[in-house]
Every structure is written in C-alpha cells, then in structure tokens.
Specification:
two-stranded antiparallel ribbon; Serine Threonine Protein Phosphatase 5, Tetratricopeptide repeat; Collagenase (Catalytic Domain); nine-stranded mixed beta sheet; alpha/beta; 3 domains; 504 residues; 16 helices
Length: 504
C-alpha cells in the first residue's frame, strides 16, 4: 500500500569554524565541547541558553571574531523571539527588543573590529541599524559587505528590502539619523602607513635591523591591518630567524611590485607558522582591552539612537521580511493551512485524460488552484510556479498499456474544479520536512522557509522554493522517490539557500 502523503526530507547542517586554540589539545577539546553544547539550543531557537555558552567560550578566547558573530546572530534572533514564540499556542514572556537589538549590534561590532572583512558581521550590524531605523547607516554597511563579496545574495536582498522601505514611507524618517561620534564618521580604512612600507624597503637593503622591520609588522597586527589570532600561532619549530628570501618580497612590496593584499597574506601565513616571530600574545591582550574601550564608546552611540527613537517617535520596520510573513501567516492560519485535506484525495475531481489522435499519446489535463501567498512575502513564487509546470510538461511518461503520456497544467480560480490545490506553508511541517503532496491528485504544500538555518524562521530564496515545488508536483502526478541524487524526485535536498539568513 502506498502512503498517501509523501514527505520531502532535507538535512540541515550548521558548521561553525572557529579560528581558535592550537597550542594545547585540551583547549581544542574544550572549545569543541562548548561549541557542540551551543549548537543544539541555537538551532532549537533556545538562544538564551546558547548565549550563556558563547560567553563561557569568550572567557577562554576573548578575541575570537567567530564567537562574537554567533553570539550576535543569537541575540538578533532572540529579538524576534525563539522559534516556539512564533507559534500562537506558546506562552512566551515579552522581551525588550530594542535592548536585544543594541546588544546584537555590539557583538557584530566587536567581530568587525577583530576581522574587518567579516561579511557576516557587516550584514549583522547593517541589519541591526536597519532595525533602529538608521537606514542610511544600514545601507553603508551592506555596501561595504558587497565590496568584499559582490555576489552575496543575502546582502543584496537586504539592500532591496531597504530600498522598498524608502519608497514605502516618508523620507523624513531617513533624514534625521542620530549624529555619529567622530570616531564613527566613516568605517576605519585601516590603511598601511607609509613608514611601514618604507621600513620594508630599508630592511630589504639591510639598512635597518630585523627588530625594526618586526616593529612595523606588529603595528599592522595591532591595528588589525593584518588580522591574526595569537592562539592560532604554531609555536613549534620557531627559530626566530627570518629567511633571507622574505627580504626580496619586502623590497618588491615597498617598490609597489607586489600588491598589499598578497604581501600581507603571506606575512600572516609566515607568522602563524612561526617563520616570522612576533609578540602576538601581547597583541592579543592589547586587542582585548582596546576592543572593550571601543565597544563602550560604540554602545553610547547606540544608546543615543534609542533615545532619539523615543523622542522622535520614530517608526521602525524590520528590513528582514521573514518576521512579518510569519506574523501575518499565524493571524490567518486557516487561509494557508490545508493539511486537513491531505488525506482526502477522494474529494478532488479526477483528471481529464484523452488520447491525442496525432501522436497516439495520452494527454493528462490538470486543473490547478493556486492559493495566494502570505501577505508581505517579498518573493513571487506564484509566477515561478509556471517553471515547475513546464518541467513536467516537457516529459514523456510510460503507461501500463504501452502508450506514452504527457501532462498539461491549467490554472483555475475555483477549488471545486481543481485536481490540485497548491498552497504556501510557513508552519513547521516536521523536522527536515519541506513539503507534502497527495499522490495523483490533491493538496500540494510547499514550505517557503524554515527554521533550519539559525533556529529562527527565515525565507528560502526563489530557486529553493521552485525546487521544492517541482518535486512535490511530481508526487501530485503520481511519481515516487528516485534513488538517483541527480534527479528532481530524490528525497533529499542538499543545496538549500535562504534569502535573509545571516548564516546562509
């Protein structure tokens, strides 16, 4: 007996690579243990529990940018409340969303101070400023992110969402940003001082000592022009002697024959492998103290924003549409939830089947009713549904009597005459389940997002939803699962992409 409801499963995998500890195996073991402890509650939306673990990790690795990033994401999602908080049947105590947003921005700021090229931190801090109505500042961070990773789809989506808000509301809410302190008037360029390059040239010509050259390198580390975690350094086989060939590279760099990025990445590699010896541990301590000082000043700026929001009665709309789609979905739950019809394929009319006299093939005609999308959904999945139709219409099928068959899809506005009802689902369908479908005819449910990225609900991108839809439509035609991973009817999707998830 064939099961009436077919489930499409996927595997959600969060891999957090933390660039920490290497000198002591016990540190690595402890870090791995803490990370594993944090991952489980994080993916369940139990962010407060995960944050406590991240705080313990930061006591051991106080200048690790990746830990700050994960804590920032947890705080950002805690602002939207946990996964269960989105379910109307759950009683969840209210939280200070403004304060949570401030704390999230602070963590991303710390991560960015340690690693200025962190796309995740740039997107996170941009999202945070957007949640405060500081849209011009949010835009600046997103654009900085695209300078580093031009094809980052999440960043691009945030910018699109930002532009929509500008068009939706009066420009006045964008023209009164909170005044920034002098140290934040622009993102730190972290340019290489002329004297460091000059020193490299003199060193290559043996005009200054190794110590003088290393002083310049330590300056670059201290000012995060070279991003280095001191705990990463391999202290074994450290002779303290700089190979002579490095001088040639230093001379070429000073003369402009080698790009800054190439030379500095090479120096970073040499330091982390102890070919060049620097006082990185001292630098780490200095970084921590400097980080605390800058974070305190930055927090005062954020507090000023909070005060301006209250005084100006500033209206703020979250630039991540995922939140609003969930809220609107649950307000009119029955409109999109059709699971009560999943086991009732008998209530749907039979498909019209006839033989084409010209081709001697069966033509199986489907009438499809398409449920409207949840309000506020920024991605048009209805139009992309046509692509899924086309895929199956181009296939020629075998039948039991030897004839070939083709299918056609036409849409209808009447449920009563539809062989298939298509609906869009926000609710959790079950662990890893992305869709449901009756075999042959009936309801097709397609998830437009899930909780698998970071524990909070996030929308899928258009391609992912189209893939799920095509798969589930295959079931509505009567097709089962394939054991070929390259086929659309394979039961597992490995390439899920989210439209707004920071950890995408």
């Amino acid at each position: 007996m064939i099961e009436n409801t077919i489930k499409l499963f996927t595997i959600f995998l969060l891999t957090a690579v933390l660039f920490v500890g290497s000198a002591f195996a016990q540190d690595m073991d402890e870090l791995a243990k803490l990370l594993a402890e944090a991952q489980e509650p994080f993916l369940k939306g139990e962010y407060e529990k995960a944050i406590k673990i991240y705080d313990e990790m930061l006591k051991i690795y106080p200048t690790d940018s990746k830990i700050f990033e994960l804590k920032g994401v947890a705080l950002s999602n805690l602002r939207l409340e946990s996964t269960l908080a989105m379910q109307p049947q759950q009683n969840v105590s209210p939280r200070d969303q403004s304060n949570l947003n401030k704390l999230s921005i602070l963590e991303f700021y710390k991560a960015l101070e340690i690693n200025p090229k962190s796309v995740l931190a740039l997107n996170g801090i941009g999202l945070g400023f957007g949640n405060f109505g500081e849209y011009s500042e949010a835009e600046r961070y997103f654009k900085k992110s695209l300078e580093i990773e031009a094809d980052n789809q999440v960043t691009q989506n945030y910018l699109i969402s930002l532009e929509k808000l500008k068009k939706k509301y009066s420009l006045s809410i964008f023209e009164n940003p909170t005044k920034k302190p002098d140290f934040l008037q622009k993102l730190d360029e972290r340019t290489i001082p002329y004297w460091v390059k000059n020193n490299a040239g003199w060193w290559s010509d043996d005009k200054i000592s190794d110590v003088d050259f290393i002083t310049g390198i330590e300056y670059l580390i201290k000012n995060k022009i070279i991003n280095l975690s001191s705990q990463n350094i391999n202290k074994e086989n450290s002779s303290g002697v700089i190979p002579s060939w490095i001088k040639n590279n230093a001379g070429w760099w000073s003369a402009g024959k080698i790009p800054d990025e190439d030379f500095l990445s090479g120096i970073k590699y040499l330091i982390e492998n102890s070919i060049i010896k620097v006082n990185a541990q001292t630098d780490s301590e200095l970084v921590q103290k400097e980080l605390e000082r800058k974070a305190w000043n930055f927090e005062q700026y954020l507090k000023n924003i909070q005060n301006d929001i209250k005084n100006q009665n500033r209206y703020v709309e979250n630039i991540n549409p995922s939140q609003y789609v969930v809220i609107k979905y649950w307000k009119d739950y029955q409109k999109w939830n059709l699971k009560q019809f999943l086991g009732k394929s008998d209530i749907f009319p039979d498909r019209n089947v006839w033989v084409d006299p010209e081709t001697d093939r069966y033509v199986i005609e489907y009438q499809v009713y398409i449920n409207e999308q949840p309000a506020g959904l920024p991605i048009d999945h209805v139009s992309s549904l046509e692509n899924s139709f086309n895929i199956w219409e181009e296939v020629e099928y075998d039948t039991t009597d030897g004839k070939k068959a083709v299918v056609t899809f036409d849409t209808t506005n009447l449920k009563a005459e539809a062989n298939v009802w298509v609906t869009w689902v926000v609710r959790n369908l079950g662990e890893g389940v992305l869709g449901h479908a009756n075999l042959g005819k009936g309801v097709v449910e397609v998830a437009i997002g899930s909780y698998g990225c970071d524990g909070g609900f996030q929308l899928f991108d258009a391609d992912t939803v189209e893939l799920i839809m095509t798969h589930e439509l295959g079931h509505s035609l009567g097709l089962g699962h394939s054991d070929n991973p390259d086929k659309i009817m394979y039961p597992t999707i490995s390439n899920l992409d989210y439209a707004y998830c920071l950890l995408n």
